[in-house]
Amino acid sequence: MSLDISITAKREVEIFEANITYNLSDMYYKCIDKKRGFKKLDNMKCKEALPIINNAITDMLNNANEYRKLNPRNGWGSYEGLLTKLQEMRNCCESNPDGIINIS
């Protein structure tokens, strides 16, 4: 005869991290939200943010030349880099719909 003993705990684990330079702000304000940019997604559940992220990706793909014109002259950040980060963010949100997005 024996006893099985276990302890479980829910822990917050960061599953996505990106640092987006402010040099790309013209792009992310344009594709995400004209007034708030990425801050629109702050404290939003991934499943609620997915339509916004998908629309941003679609807009960037459909208007690539327009977005490339917004590439920073100083070389810090690029259209391709922002698009890649948005796609990675989308993939993470699709896999973790109850995840919470934090923007700081």
Strand content: under 5%
**Unreliably modeled segments:** none
Query: What is the gyration radius calculated from CA atoms?
Result: 18 Å
Based on helices, strands and strand pairing, what is the structural class? mainly alpha
Inertia-based shape: elongated
In DSSP terms (H or I, runs of 4 or more residues), the helix count works out at: 4
Mean pLDDT rating = 92
Helical residue percent band: 40-55%
Pattern of helices and strands = HHHH
Distance between the termini: 53 Å
Question: How many strand elements?
Answer: 0
Major β-sheet annotation: none
What this model shows, in words?
This protein is an all-alpha fold. The chain has a domain at 28-95. The protein is built from 4 helices and no strands. α2 packs antiparallel against α4. The radius of gyration is 18 Å and the shape is elongated. 17% of the residues are buried. The model has no long low-confidence stretch (mean pLDDT 92).
Summarize the structure in short.
With 104 residues, the chain is mainly alpha-helical. Helices cover 44% and strands 0% of the residues. The chain has a domain at 28-95.
SSE diagram, text form:
Layout: H1 25-31, H2 46-62, H3 64-68, H4 79-95
Which descriptors would you attach to this protein?
mainly alpha, 104 residues, 4 helices, single chain
